[in-house]
Structure formats: structure tokens, C-alpha cells
Amino acid sequence: MEEPVIDAQGLTKVFGETVKAVDSVSFTVRKGEIFGFLGPNGAGKSTTINMLTTVMRPTAGRALVCGYDVAKHPMDVRRRVGVVPQEYTADEDMSGRDNIVLCADLYGIPRRESVPRVNELLQIVELQDAAGRKVGTYSGGMRRRLELACGLINYPSLLFLDEPTLGLDVQTRTAVWKYIRALKVEYGMTLFLTTHYLEEADSLCDRIAIIDHGHIVQIGTPAQLKANVGGDVVEVSVQESQPDLSTELQAIPMVSSAKQVGSGYRVKTESGDEVVPQIMDTIRAKGLHVTRISVTKPSLDEAYLELTGRSLREEESDRMSMMSQRITMRRARS
Ligand SMILES: Nc1ncnc2c1ncn2[C@@H]1O[C@H](COP(=O)(O)OP(=O)(O)OP(=O)(O)O)[C@@H](O)[C@H]1O
Ligand SMILES: [Mg+2]
């Protein structure tokens, strides 16, 4: 087995005497994975990133990042990782290009190396045309892409993204996902991201850790997390109500339960798509006629609800409105 890119064991951060922001989290991230921390406000996502990127020292526990202990060899870790923080860091009065050059300067990259690198990065995030414009004139999506470019300045093999699409509309969010996926596919990069958007975690992440009150409640692929809820539901309507085939349907491998409802059936299974043909065969073999069949997939929101007792969707909309208020206030101030 290849050594994990991140190996955190019992990682803990206590603020002051009592605030346990991160409470003994353990997980590993494999090379080339997109690993997501999904959780609500104040769950401890940013604090975890801060410890893994050596911005904050863990109170307890241990973390190896790219093979180096964050507490003992912070410089070795820093050289290998990139970070795109939750808050915007770019200077609004400078152009996009100058902002990236500044990032390179901060990393001590000489100009003769950084200038061609900056052009390459501008191309990757498709900001070449806007590169000379002041960042103050950029849209939210453009700003996020600029922050992404800054995070990539030192050719990291591991990139941390703290809420990469916070406050973006759905369409712009999808565009940012495209860049993130490209980093994995084209550059073999490992990505660690935090999010409280279910769709983001679902469509982007290979594996997700659901974090709540500083604890990891569950780790798995999106499919595994959803399967925990109890799997898919296949609803099938049959023209004839007799004979009752629930026993036969129940006998299909991977079917966990089958109940007759009216003249049809409600079948629970871990994999609806695989079971549908067998359900059809079973019913037809008895000379009966299927009139309708549908598969309902459990959503990640249901999985989240099951694990934490709360729905993330409500928080999502609360935060969206909070974000837009904040942007409006910032505009009013400037
Ligand atoms: N520097 C700090 N001093 C004291 N408490 C802090 C500090 N930073 C974070 N906290 C607290 O630690 C907890 C976790 O915060 P953190 O920022 O890690 O959450 P998060 O999951 O990133 O939340 P969000 O989704 O709002 O970004 C919160 O209760 C927060 O108030
Ligand atoms: Mg945060």
C-alpha cells in the first residue's frame, strides 16, 4: 500500500480552556483522491485545514502531511502543499496577474521563474483575458478562480480548498468544479476540500468525512454514505394484483425487503439499477405485466440527516442569504 498523503490520528484543537473545535479526528487521504469534509457552520473544518497546513499547532494528536509531521517539520509540509483559504485574500486594487505574482514573491520564487508560471496559471483558470483588470471588477466566480491560481503557485502535490464555492450561484459553482476535477485528472493532484454543499460533496468527492461539532461522524464514498440510509427504493406497478409475488421478490439477491402496495410493490435494495432487470424477470416469469417501474435514490441530505439529526439544506439556504447580505454590506461600504 502506498503511503497516504494525509494521515491524521486523534487530531485535536482546543481554543482557550473549553472550546474543542476539533475533537480527536482520525482519517487518511490517498494519493490522487478528492477528499471532502462536509459539515455545518462551526463544525471544525477550517480549524482542521489550519492544523494540516501548519497555520495552527494541534493541541493533541498527530498529522503527517506528504510524509512530514506538521508539528515537527512545518517547512517541509508548506513547501509541498497549496492552500485556497475560505476568505478572499486578493488585493482588489491590483490586477489579477499582479496578485499571482505577489503570491509567488511570498513563496520566494524568483521573477524569471514566476512570470511564465503566472501565465500558465492564468490559462489553467481561464483568466488570461481579465488578467490586467483590477480584481475589484471581477465577478465572484472569477475571484474564486484567481484564489485557486494563487494556491497553485508552488506546484503543490496536495491542495487544500476551504469552501471553494461559498456564495457562488449554482452555475458558477459547476464551473469551479471543472477546474478542481482537472487538477485531479490532468495533474494527478490530491485535493482536500471543505464544503457544506451536499451537491458539491456528492459530485466532486471520491470520499467524504461528515464532521459535526468537531467529530467525524462517518467516512465513506458518497454511495456508501447514501447506502447507510437504507439503499434505493424500487417502485413497480403490476397490472395484476394476484398472485402476491413479495416472497419471490424478496428472494432476489441484494433485495433487503419487498412489500406489496396496491397492485404493485415497494422493493428496498442497496442497488436499484442492478435489481430492476431481475424484478422485471421475476414478474414476467409468472405471466404478469409490469406497467411502470422507478428507482428512487436516497440523497446525501438524507444520509446527513440520519447521522446528525439535522438537515444541512436549511443551513445551506441560511448561509447563502447571509453571504449575499455580507457582500451587499461590503459594496455599500466601499
Ligand atoms: N481562533 C479561534 N479562537 C477561538 N475559537 C475559534 C477560533 N477559530 C475557530 N474557533 C471556534 O472553533 C469552532 C470551529 O470553527 P471552524 O472555523 O473550524 O469551523 P468551520 O467548520 O470552518 O465553520 P464554517 O463553515 O463557518 O467555516 C467554532 O466554534 C469557532 O467559533
Ligand atoms: Mg470554515
In short:
By secondary structure, the chain is of the alpha/beta class. The chain has two domains: 6-226, P-loop containing nucleotide triphosphate hydrolases (Rossmann fold), CATH 3.40.50.300; 230-296, Alpha-Beta Plaits (2-Layer Sandwich).
3D architecture notes:
By secondary structure, this protein is of the alpha/beta class. The protein folds into 2 domains: 6-226, 3-Layer(aba) Sandwich (Rossmann fold); 230-296, Alpha-Beta Plaits (2-Layer Sandwich), CATH 3.30.70. Helices cover 40% and strands 26% of the residues. It is built from 12 helices and 14 strands. It has helices spanning 45-52, 74-80, 96-106, 111-124, 140-151, 170-187, 198-204, 222-228, 246-250, 272-285, 300-308, 312-333; strands at residues 6-15, 19-29, 34-38, 60-65, 68-69, 81-84, 158-162, 190-195, 207-212, 215-220, 232-238, 255-261, 264-269, 290-296. The strands form 3 sheets. The protein has a 6-stranded mixed β-sheet, with helices on both faces. Strand 7, helix 6 and strand 8 (190-195) form a beta-alpha-beta unit. Helix 3 (96-106) packs across helix 4, helix 3 (96-106) runs parallel beside helix 5 (140-151) and helix 5 (140-151) runs parallel beside helix 6 (170-187). The longest helix has 22 residues, at 312-333. The protein is elongated, with a radius of gyration of 24 Å. The structure holds adenosine-5'-triphosphate and magnesium ion (MG). Magnesium ion is lined by residues 45-46, 86, 162.
